[in-house]
Amino acid sequence: MSGIGRRTPGGAAVTGGGPGGAAGGRSAPVAGGSEGAAAGSAPGPHTAGLYIRDIPRELLARVPAEQRGPGLGRDSVRLLVSRGTAQPSLHAFRELPHLLRAGDVLVVNTSATLAAAVDARLGGEAVVVHFSTRGDDSRWAVELRAPAGRGTTRPRPGGPAGAVVELPGGRGLVLEEPLTAGADRLWWARPSPAPYGVPELLREHGRPIRYAYTERDQPLSAYQTVFALPSADGAGSAEMPSAGRPFTAELVARLVSRGVQFAPLVLHTGVASQEAHEPPYPERYAVPAATAALVNAARAGGGRVIAVGTTAVRALESAADARGVVRAAGGWTDLVVTPERGVRVVDGLLTGLHEPEASHLLMLEAVAGRAAVRLGYAQALSRHCLWHEFGDVHLLLRDDSRHGSHC
Protein backbone atom coordinates (compact mmCIF):
# COMPACT_ATOMS: atom_id res chain seq x y z
CA MET A 1 0.00 0.00 0.00
CA SER A 2 -0.83 2.10 -1.00
CA GLY A 3 5.52 4.66 0.47
CA ILE A 4 4.79 8.24 0.84
CA GLY A 5 2.85 9.46 -2.10
CA ARG A 6 0.73 6.29 -2.30
CA ARG A 7 -1.04 5.71 0.96
CA THR A 8 -0.75 6.95 4.48
CA PRO A 9 -1.97 4.20 6.80
CA GLY A 10 -2.65 5.27 10.32
CA GLY A 11 -1.83 3.70 13.63
CA ALA A 12 1.42 2.37 14.98
CA ALA A 13 3.36 0.20 12.62
CA VAL A 14 3.76 -3.48 13.28
CA THR A 15 6.77 -5.03 11.66
CA GLY A 16 6.59 -8.41 10.39
CA GLY A 17 6.11 -2.61 7.12
CA GLY A 18 5.53 19.79 -8.04
CA PRO A 19 4.16 20.44 -10.28
CA GLY A 20 5.27 19.34 -13.68
CA GLY A 21 6.82 15.90 -14.23
CA ALA A 22 9.57 16.04 -16.80
CA ALA A 23 9.86 13.08 -19.08
CA GLY A 24 13.48 12.60 -18.16
CA GLY A 25 12.74 12.14 -14.45
CA ARG A 26 14.47 13.88 -11.53
CA SER A 27 17.96 13.79 -10.13
CA ALA A 28 18.40 11.11 -7.54
CA PRO A 29 18.77 12.15 -3.92
CA VAL A 30 22.42 11.36 -3.25
CA ALA A 31 25.20 12.23 -0.87
CA GLY A 32 25.26 15.68 0.56
CA GLY A 33 21.71 15.92 -0.28
CA SER A 34 18.80 16.49 2.04
CA GLU A 35 17.15 16.40 -1.36
CA GLY A 36 14.24 14.30 -0.23
CA ALA A 37 12.05 17.39 -0.04
CA ALA A 38 10.39 17.39 -3.41
CA ALA A 39 10.62 20.68 -5.21
CA GLY A 40 7.23 22.34 -5.03
CA SER A 41 5.86 19.24 -3.38
CA ALA A 42 3.74 20.69 -0.61
CA PRO A 43 0.27 19.50 -1.54
CA GLY A 44 -1.56 22.31 0.20
CA PRO A 45 -4.33 21.95 2.77
CA HIS A 46 -5.76 18.46 3.06
CA THR A 47 -9.38 18.31 2.02
CA ALA A 48 -10.07 14.97 3.66
CA GLY A 49 -12.35 16.51 6.26
CA LEU A 50 -14.83 16.91 3.45
CA TYR A 51 -14.98 13.12 3.10
CA ILE A 52 -14.28 11.41 6.38
CA ARG A 53 -13.09 12.46 9.84
CA ASP A 54 -12.42 9.05 11.34
CA ILE A 55 -12.43 5.43 10.25
CA PRO A 56 -14.53 3.15 12.49
CA ARG A 57 -12.34 0.35 13.82
CA GLU A 58 -14.66 -2.28 12.39
CA LEU A 59 -13.90 -0.99 8.88
CA LEU A 60 -10.16 -1.72 9.12
CA ALA A 61 -9.22 -4.74 7.00
CA ARG A 62 -7.34 -6.96 9.47
CA VAL A 63 -6.56 -9.97 7.26
CA PRO A 64 -6.36 -10.59 3.52
CA ALA A 65 -9.66 -11.32 1.77
CA GLU A 66 -8.71 -14.94 1.10
CA GLN A 67 -8.45 -15.58 4.85
CA ARG A 68 -11.94 -14.33 5.72
CA GLY A 69 -13.81 -17.50 4.87
CA PRO A 70 -13.85 -20.70 2.80
CA GLY A 71 -13.93 -20.29 -0.95
CA LEU A 72 -12.73 -16.68 -0.88
CA GLY A 73 -9.86 -15.30 -2.94
CA ARG A 74 -7.99 -12.09 -3.43
CA ASP A 75 -10.72 -10.90 -5.80
CA SER A 76 -13.38 -11.33 -3.09
CA VAL A 77 -13.06 -7.68 -2.08
CA ARG A 78 -15.69 -5.16 -3.12
CA LEU A 79 -15.35 -2.48 -5.79
CA LEU A 80 -16.82 0.99 -5.36
CA VAL A 81 -17.23 2.95 -8.63
CA SER A 82 -17.47 6.76 -8.61
CA ARG A 83 -17.90 9.24 -11.44
CA GLY A 84 -18.74 12.93 -11.11
CA THR A 85 -21.99 13.71 -9.34
CA ALA A 86 -23.57 10.33 -10.15
CA GLN A 87 -24.46 8.08 -7.22
CA PRO A 88 -21.57 5.63 -6.69
CA SER A 89 -22.24 1.96 -7.31
CA LEU A 90 -20.93 -1.04 -5.37
CA HIS A 91 -19.86 -4.28 -7.04
CA ALA A 92 -17.86 -7.41 -6.48
CA PHE A 93 -14.30 -6.88 -7.72
CA ARG A 94 -14.79 -9.93 -9.96
CA GLU A 95 -17.23 -7.79 -11.97
CA LEU A 96 -14.45 -5.47 -13.15
CA PRO A 97 -14.36 -6.95 -16.70
CA HIS A 98 -18.01 -5.91 -17.15
CA LEU A 99 -17.28 -2.38 -15.93
CA LEU A 100 -14.48 -1.70 -18.42
CA ARG A 101 -14.62 -1.74 -22.19
CA ALA A 102 -12.51 -2.92 -25.11
CA GLY A 103 -9.70 -0.49 -25.77
CA ASP A 104 -9.23 0.51 -22.14
CA VAL A 105 -5.69 0.22 -20.77
CA LEU A 106 -4.90 -0.72 -17.18
CA VAL A 107 -1.48 0.66 -16.16
CA VAL A 108 0.05 -1.57 -13.48
CA ASN A 109 3.08 -1.28 -11.21
CA THR A 110 5.31 -4.37 -11.38
CA SER A 111 7.52 -3.44 -8.42
CA ALA A 112 7.93 -6.36 -6.02
CA THR A 113 7.48 -5.87 -2.28
CA LEU A 114 10.59 -6.25 -0.12
CA ALA A 115 10.85 -7.78 3.34
CA ALA A 116 11.88 -4.31 4.45
CA ALA A 117 11.68 -4.51 8.28
CA VAL A 118 14.74 -5.76 10.20
CA ASP A 119 15.39 -6.01 13.96
CA ALA A 120 18.49 -4.10 15.06
CA ARG A 121 20.17 -2.31 17.95
CA LEU A 122 21.31 1.27 18.36
CA GLY A 123 23.65 1.51 21.33
CA GLY A 124 21.79 -0.38 24.05
CA GLU A 125 18.39 0.23 22.47
CA ALA A 126 16.39 -2.30 20.48
CA VAL A 127 15.08 -0.75 17.25
CA VAL A 128 13.41 -1.89 14.06
CA VAL A 129 14.83 -0.57 10.80
CA HIS A 130 12.45 0.06 7.90
CA PHE A 131 14.51 0.17 4.70
CA SER A 132 12.75 2.67 2.47
CA THR A 133 14.62 3.90 -0.60
CA ARG A 134 18.03 3.20 -2.12
CA GLY A 135 19.95 6.26 -3.33
CA ASP A 136 22.39 6.40 -6.20
CA ASP A 137 25.41 6.51 -3.89
CA SER A 138 24.97 3.15 -2.07
CA ARG A 139 23.12 4.81 0.82
CA TRP A 140 19.61 3.89 1.92
CA ALA A 141 16.88 6.10 3.36
CA VAL A 142 15.72 4.31 6.51
CA GLU A 143 13.21 4.84 9.28
CA LEU A 144 14.00 3.72 12.83
CA ARG A 145 11.06 2.52 14.92
CA ALA A 146 10.89 1.58 18.61
CA PRO A 147 9.41 -1.82 19.57
CA ALA A 148 6.18 -1.34 21.54
CA GLY A 149 5.36 -4.90 22.59
CA ARG A 150 3.55 -7.79 20.90
CA GLY A 151 5.36 -7.01 17.68
CA THR A 152 4.12 -3.47 17.36
CA THR A 153 6.35 -0.45 16.89
CA ARG A 154 6.00 3.25 17.61
CA PRO A 155 7.72 6.35 16.25
CA ARG A 156 11.07 7.43 17.63
CA PRO A 157 13.35 10.34 16.73
CA GLY A 158 15.81 9.57 13.99
CA GLY A 159 19.56 9.78 14.33
CA PRO A 160 21.77 10.89 15.87
CA ALA A 161 24.24 11.62 13.08
CA GLY A 162 27.23 9.32 13.23
CA ALA A 163 25.44 6.62 15.22
CA VAL A 164 25.93 3.04 14.08
CA VAL A 165 22.92 0.74 13.86
CA GLU A 166 23.89 -2.89 14.47
CA LEU A 167 22.21 -5.31 12.07
CA PRO A 168 22.18 -9.13 11.96
CA GLY A 169 25.21 -10.95 10.62
CA GLY A 170 27.72 -8.32 11.74
CA ARG A 171 26.36 -5.73 9.33
CA GLY A 172 25.78 -2.11 10.26
CA LEU A 173 24.40 1.24 9.13
CA VAL A 174 25.99 4.62 9.83
CA LEU A 175 23.34 7.32 10.17
CA GLU A 176 24.48 10.39 8.25
CA GLU A 177 21.76 13.04 7.78
CA PRO A 178 17.99 13.45 7.60
CA LEU A 179 16.46 12.77 4.21
CA THR A 180 14.60 16.09 4.46
CA ALA A 181 16.07 19.16 6.11
CA GLY A 182 14.19 19.96 9.32
CA ALA A 183 12.66 16.49 9.67
CA ASP A 184 14.13 13.44 11.35
CA ARG A 185 11.80 10.55 10.55
CA LEU A 186 13.81 9.28 7.56
CA TRP A 187 17.61 9.32 7.53
CA TRP A 188 20.24 8.58 4.94
CA ALA A 189 22.36 5.70 6.22
CA ARG A 190 25.48 4.12 4.75
CA PRO A 191 26.16 0.38 4.96
CA SER A 192 29.21 -0.32 7.12
CA PRO A 193 31.95 -1.42 7.52
CA ALA A 194 31.89 -1.79 3.73
CA PRO A 195 29.04 -1.74 1.24
CA TYR A 196 27.07 -4.99 1.39
CA GLY A 197 23.99 -6.17 -0.40
CA VAL A 198 20.96 -4.79 1.43
CA PRO A 199 18.59 -6.94 -0.72
CA GLU A 200 20.47 -10.02 0.52
CA LEU A 201 20.17 -8.79 4.12
CA LEU A 202 16.41 -8.34 3.67
CA ARG A 203 16.01 -11.79 2.15
CA GLU A 204 17.87 -13.36 5.08
CA HIS A 205 16.58 -11.33 8.03
CA GLY A 206 13.73 -9.11 6.87
CA ARG A 207 9.97 -9.37 7.16
CA PRO A 208 7.19 -7.33 5.56
CA ILE A 209 6.24 -3.99 7.03
CA ARG A 210 2.76 -4.16 8.47
CA TYR A 211 0.56 -2.02 10.67
CA ALA A 212 -1.21 -2.37 13.99
CA TYR A 213 -4.69 -2.63 12.52
CA THR A 214 -3.78 -5.98 10.98
CA GLU A 215 -4.50 -9.08 13.03
CA ARG A 216 -1.29 -11.06 12.62
CA ASP A 217 1.93 -11.43 10.65
CA GLN A 218 1.58 -12.52 7.03
CA PRO A 219 4.15 -14.15 4.74
CA LEU A 220 5.82 -11.95 2.16
CA SER A 221 3.71 -13.65 -0.53
CA ALA A 222 0.61 -11.98 0.94
CA TYR A 223 2.17 -8.62 0.08
CA GLN A 224 3.05 -9.45 -3.54
CA THR A 225 0.67 -8.62 -6.37
CA VAL A 226 0.11 -10.84 -9.39
CA PHE A 227 2.02 -8.23 -11.40
CA ALA A 228 5.17 -8.23 -9.22
CA LEU A 229 8.42 -8.99 -11.03
CA PRO A 230 11.82 -9.47 -9.39
CA SER A 231 14.34 -6.78 -10.22
CA ALA A 232 17.78 -7.78 -11.46
CA ASP A 233 19.43 -5.54 -8.86
CA GLY A 234 17.15 -6.65 -6.01
CA ALA A 235 15.33 -3.32 -5.84
CA GLY A 236 11.67 -3.19 -4.89
CA SER A 237 9.05 -1.45 -2.80
CA ALA A 238 9.18 -1.01 0.95
CA GLU A 239 5.40 -1.40 0.95
CA MET A 240 3.08 -3.21 -1.43
CA PRO A 241 1.57 -1.35 -4.41
CA SER A 242 -1.69 -2.58 -2.96
CA ALA A 243 -4.21 -1.46 -5.60
CA GLY A 244 -3.07 -4.43 -7.69
CA ARG A 245 -3.56 -6.96 -4.91
CA PRO A 246 -7.16 -8.03 -5.76
CA PHE A 247 -6.18 -9.11 -9.29
CA THR A 248 -5.74 -12.82 -9.98
CA ALA A 249 -4.35 -14.55 -13.05
CA GLU A 250 -7.86 -15.71 -13.93
CA LEU A 251 -9.27 -12.18 -13.69
CA VAL A 252 -6.44 -10.79 -15.82
CA ALA A 253 -7.24 -13.40 -18.47
CA ARG A 254 -10.92 -12.42 -18.44
CA LEU A 255 -10.04 -8.75 -18.83
CA VAL A 256 -7.72 -9.48 -21.76
CA SER A 257 -10.41 -11.61 -23.43
CA ARG A 258 -12.75 -8.60 -23.32
CA GLY A 259 -10.19 -6.37 -25.06
CA VAL A 260 -8.74 -4.63 -22.01
CA GLN A 261 -4.97 -4.19 -22.27
CA PHE A 262 -2.30 -4.06 -19.57
CA ALA A 263 0.63 -1.65 -19.61
CA PRO A 264 3.44 -2.26 -17.06
CA LEU A 265 5.68 0.29 -15.42
CA VAL A 266 7.74 0.42 -12.24
CA LEU A 267 7.74 2.77 -9.27
CA HIS A 268 9.59 1.56 -6.17
CA THR A 269 7.65 2.87 -3.19
CA GLY A 270 9.20 4.07 0.05
CA VAL A 271 7.94 3.88 3.62
CA ALA A 272 4.59 5.57 4.20
CA SER A 273 4.32 8.44 6.67
CA GLN A 274 1.77 6.69 8.84
CA GLU A 275 1.89 9.29 11.60
CA ALA A 276 3.26 12.40 9.90
CA HIS A 277 1.23 12.34 6.65
CA GLU A 278 4.09 13.97 4.81
CA PRO A 279 3.98 14.87 1.13
CA PRO A 280 5.71 12.48 -1.28
CA TYR A 281 9.47 12.46 -1.57
CA PRO A 282 11.36 11.38 -4.71
CA GLU A 283 10.95 7.76 -5.76
CA ARG A 284 12.61 5.74 -8.50
CA TYR A 285 10.47 4.88 -11.54
CA ALA A 286 10.67 3.58 -15.10
CA VAL A 287 8.12 3.80 -17.92
CA PRO A 288 9.15 1.54 -20.83
CA ALA A 289 8.78 2.58 -24.47
CA ALA A 290 6.20 -0.17 -25.10
CA THR A 291 3.98 1.15 -22.31
CA ALA A 292 4.29 4.72 -23.60
CA ALA A 293 3.29 3.56 -27.09
CA LEU A 294 0.33 1.55 -25.78
CA VAL A 295 -0.98 4.44 -23.69
CA ASN A 296 -0.60 6.95 -26.53
CA ALA A 297 -2.38 4.62 -28.95
CA ALA A 298 -5.26 4.10 -26.52
CA ARG A 299 -5.68 7.84 -26.05
CA ALA A 300 -5.62 8.42 -29.81
CA GLY A 301 -8.21 5.68 -30.33
CA GLY A 302 -10.65 6.78 -27.63
CA GLY A 303 -9.68 4.20 -25.03
CA ARG A 304 -9.43 5.09 -21.37
CA VAL A 305 -6.15 5.00 -19.45
CA ILE A 306 -6.85 3.68 -15.95
CA ALA A 307 -4.03 3.63 -13.42
CA VAL A 308 -3.95 0.74 -10.96
CA GLY A 309 -2.77 2.60 -7.87
CA THR A 310 -1.50 6.06 -7.06
CA THR A 311 2.03 4.83 -7.81
CA ALA A 312 1.04 4.20 -11.44
CA VAL A 313 -0.42 7.72 -11.67
CA ARG A 314 2.76 9.28 -10.32
CA ALA A 315 5.02 7.37 -12.71
CA LEU A 316 2.86 7.77 -15.80
CA GLU A 317 2.22 11.48 -15.28
CA SER A 318 5.95 11.97 -14.70
CA ALA A 319 6.61 10.57 -18.18
CA ALA A 320 4.04 12.79 -19.93
CA ASP A 321 4.64 16.15 -21.56
CA ALA A 322 2.31 19.14 -21.31
CA ARG A 323 0.16 17.76 -24.15
CA GLY A 324 -0.27 14.40 -22.45
CA VAL A 325 2.07 12.50 -24.77
CA VAL A 326 3.91 9.78 -22.85
CA ARG A 327 7.52 8.94 -23.62
CA ALA A 328 9.86 6.33 -22.23
CA ALA A 329 11.30 7.79 -19.05
CA GLY A 330 13.01 6.79 -15.85
CA GLY A 331 15.02 7.97 -12.91
CA TRP A 332 13.57 9.83 -9.94
CA THR A 333 10.25 11.62 -9.75
CA ASP A 334 9.23 14.24 -7.23
CA LEU A 335 5.86 14.85 -8.87
CA VAL A 336 2.90 15.56 -6.61
CA VAL A 337 -0.47 15.35 -8.35
CA THR A 338 -2.98 17.90 -7.06
CA PRO A 339 -6.22 19.33 -8.43
CA GLU A 340 -4.30 22.49 -9.34
CA ARG A 341 -1.74 20.55 -11.36
CA GLY A 342 -4.33 18.14 -12.75
CA VAL A 343 -3.67 14.99 -14.76
CA ARG A 344 -2.59 14.89 -18.39
CA VAL A 345 -2.91 11.20 -19.21
CA VAL A 346 -5.00 9.34 -16.67
CA ASP A 347 -8.76 8.91 -17.16
CA GLY A 348 -9.36 6.74 -14.12
CA LEU A 349 -7.77 5.46 -10.95
CA LEU A 350 -8.23 2.16 -9.15
CA THR A 351 -7.07 2.60 -5.57
CA GLY A 352 -7.73 1.65 -1.97
CA LEU A 353 -9.59 3.76 0.59
CA HIS A 354 -7.33 6.40 2.10
CA GLU A 355 -7.13 7.90 5.57
CA PRO A 356 -8.45 11.36 6.43
CA GLU A 357 -5.07 13.11 6.26
CA ALA A 358 -3.71 11.23 3.23
CA SER A 359 -2.28 13.50 0.55
CA HIS A 360 -3.47 10.94 -2.00
CA LEU A 361 -6.97 12.33 -1.67
CA LEU A 362 -5.76 15.35 -3.61
CA MET A 363 -4.69 13.02 -6.43
CA LEU A 364 -8.16 11.45 -6.41
CA GLU A 365 -9.66 14.92 -6.79
CA ALA A 366 -7.30 15.64 -9.68
CA VAL A 367 -8.51 12.54 -11.52
CA ALA A 368 -12.23 12.50 -10.79
CA GLY A 369 -13.17 15.77 -9.11
CA ARG A 370 -14.15 16.62 -5.56
CA ALA A 371 -17.79 15.56 -5.97
CA ALA A 372 -16.86 12.02 -6.99
CA VAL A 373 -14.49 11.64 -4.05
CA ARG A 374 -16.99 13.06 -1.57
CA LEU A 375 -19.84 10.85 -2.78
CA GLY A 376 -17.58 7.79 -2.95
CA TYR A 377 -16.36 8.13 0.62
CA ALA A 378 -19.88 8.71 1.91
CA GLN A 379 -20.93 5.50 0.17
CA ALA A 380 -17.89 3.62 1.48
CA LEU A 381 -18.88 4.48 5.03
CA SER A 382 -22.57 3.74 4.63
CA ARG A 383 -21.93 0.40 2.89
CA HIS A 384 -19.25 -0.64 5.41
CA CYS A 385 -16.38 -0.92 2.95
CA LEU A 386 -13.01 -1.96 4.37
CA TRP A 387 -9.92 0.28 4.49
CA HIS A 388 -6.21 -0.30 3.89
CA GLU A 389 -4.09 -2.74 1.91
CA PHE A 390 -6.25 -5.82 2.47
CA GLY A 391 -9.49 -3.86 2.07
CA ASP A 392 -11.92 -2.92 -0.67
CA VAL A 393 -11.01 -0.84 -3.72
CA HIS A 394 -12.34 2.30 -5.35
CA LEU A 395 -12.53 2.98 -9.09
CA LEU A 396 -12.74 6.69 -9.82
CA LEU A 397 -13.42 7.73 -13.41
CA ARG A 398 -13.12 11.11 -15.04
CA ASP A 399 -16.35 13.03 -15.41
CA ASP A 400 -16.37 13.53 -19.19
CA SER A 401 -18.74 16.47 -18.89
CA ARG A 402 -16.15 18.17 -16.65
CA HIS A 403 -12.99 17.29 -18.53
CA GLY A 404 -14.13 17.01 -22.11
CA SER A 405 -12.52 14.59 -24.52
CA HIS A 406 -8.83 14.25 -25.22
CA CYS A 407 -7.37 16.76 -27.64
Commentary on this structure:
This protein has 407 residues and is an alpha+beta fold. Helices cover 17% and strands 24% of the residues. It is built from 8 helices and 18 strands. The strands form 3 sheets. It has a 9-stranded mixed beta sheet with strand order 3-2-18-17-15-4-13-14-16. A 6-stranded antiparallel barrel has the order 5-6-7-11-10-9. A two-stranded antiparallel sheet has the order 1-12. β2 and β3 (89-92) form a beta hairpin. The model is unreliable at 1-49 and 403-407 (pLDDT under 50).
Q: What distinguishing features does this structure have?
A:
407 residues; alpha+beta; nine-stranded mixed sheet; six-stranded antiparallel barrel; globular; disordered N terminus; disordered C terminus
Brief overview:
The protein is an alpha+beta fold and 407 residues long. It is built from eight helices and 18 strands. Helix 6 packs across helix 7 (370-382).
Our count of helices gives 8
- Percent of residues in helices comes to 10-25%
Principal-axes geometry comes out as globular
Q: If you average the pLDDT, what whole number results?
A: 84
The end-to-end span amounts to: 33 Å
Give the low-confidence spans: 1-49, 403-407
